[in-house]
Structures are given as structure tokens and as C-alpha cells.
Amino acid sequence: FTTVDQFVSALTACEEGLLVGCNNGAYLFSNATDQFQKLSDKITAPVLNFSLDGDQNVWISTSGQGVFRYNRTTHELHQYPMKNIQGKVKCTLVDANNQVWMLCNQGEASIYHLNKSTDQFEAFPLKGDATMFHGMAMLATPDGNVYVGTWENGLYKLNADGSAEQLISGTLSNAVHHIHQLYCNDNKSLLIASDDGLVQYDIQNRIWRMLSEVNNPSRSTFLTYKRNYPRKIGVHKHPPFLFEIYKSY
């Protein structure tokens, strides 16, 4: 990295190494060389998110250039500029059926779905508890469900018919005002990283509980997990620190 790489905004592991998103593009930290290499000079906007699909593609969300599809085998790069939303994409998501979704906070739709027959992202109309929301994070569980964490609107589940079902209110719960990331490694519960702390949501019983409360000015901002190791919860603080949450919770 150089002096212009002022922050790291996305980290995702893949077979080749670690994908790193920063304010001026996307990099791969290679397992083979222990070196950083830029995926493409064409990606110059801040990278906010990576998603991996079942076809060796990396879906790269940016703030300003839309979405890029990078193939890890052929190294081909394709851009979806998304000019209708000024190219500002919060994140992409690949669900259990290898379908690609996109979350944004610009324009007339919050959710987009990739039509693979036309290779175009199309607006996915919402109904039910919300027709629009300020989305911050998306998650697909192994059973095929899609969840969205929002800024001040709580946690939603997206149903196949396009209905958005609010599971936790951001205001009434006083626990998930600003959701930054969602995590799940089974079909039983979700972990929610928010400004208020770390929350566990029981999917079957539809109840939530606070696992660790974070006092201001700290806030839980990301979750990551490595097989055979505890979950790591990053907290925005000066200096930053990590929590380790074991499966016994």
C-alpha cells in the first residue's frame, strides 16, 4: 500500500488469499507470494464490499463506480456502472441459489437483483413493512433467506414475494439503531454488529438479546470468523480493539 491508501474498508477471504478494499481500489494479498497486488487499475473508487459467487467471480461494490465482476480464474473484469444511482453501491450479496443482489441508498429502489439472462441489475420492488430503507448490510442464510440491516430502521427479512418484514425495530428496541454488519454460520441465529453493541437474534423464536453492550463513543462495526477459531468483533474506538465470542454463547 502507499500513502494514498488511507483506510481499509472491506476484507474477504478467498482461496487465493485475502481480498482488501480501500479508498482507491481493490487488492489481493496473495497466499503464494505474501504480497499485495491490485486487481485492476480500472477500479479507482472506494471499495465497500466483496461477495464471492459459485462461478469464481468476485462482486466488488464501490462508492462511485457501481459494481465490478472480477473472475478469479480468467482475471476478466466487467463493470456495472449503475449511473441511475450515481454508482454508489453499499454492498452486493450472493444467496444460497447463487443469485446476486445489490443494496443501495440512492435512487428509487433500495434493492436490486441481477437478471442473468440480460446481465443487468433490475430494481426489486419492496412491499409490506417497508418499500424503502437506508440499508447498511445484507446477509443470506444457508436456508435461502435474505436479511437487511439498516440505519435507524432495524432488521428486516426479505421474502420471496418481495415483502419486507421488520424483525427488530431500530427505535423501539433501543439496541440496533445503526446496523453495520450481519453474520450467521447456521440457520438458528444471527449476530448483529451495531453502534449499540453486539446483538444475537434467534431466528426460530424471533427474540433478540444483547450479548455485549458498547459504551459510546465505541461501536461494533464488523464481524469475521475463521474455522476452529472464535468470532472476532471489531469495535470502532481509539485505539481499536477486538472481542472474542466463543460458540458457548
Descriptive report:
Keywords: Kinase, Transferase. This protein has a single domain (47-245), classed as Methylamine Dehydrogenase, Chain H. The strands form six sheets. It has a five-stranded mixed beta sheet with strand order 13-17-16-15-14, with no helix packed on it. Strands 1-2-3-4 form a four-stranded antiparallel beta sheet, with no helix packed on it. A four-stranded antiparallel beta sheet has the order 5-6-7-8, with no helix packed on it. The protein contains no helices and 24 strands. Mean pLDDT is 84; it is low at 225-249. It is an all-beta fold and 249 residues long.
Secondary structure layout plus pairing:
Blueprint: E1 8-14, E2 17-22, E3 25-30, E4 36-38, E5 47-52, E6 57-62, E7 67-71, E8 77-80, E9 91-94, E10 100-103, E11 111-115, E12 120-123, E13 127-128, E14 135-140, E15 146-150, E16 155-158, E17 163-168, E18 179-183, E19 189-194, E20 197-202, E21 207-213, E22 219-224, E23 231-236, E24 241-245
Parallel strand pairs: 13-17
Antiparallel strand pairs: 1-2, 2-3, 3-4, 5-6, 6-7, 7-8, 9-10, 10-11, 11-12, 14-15, 15-16, 16-17, 18-19, 19-20, 20-21, 22-23, 23-24
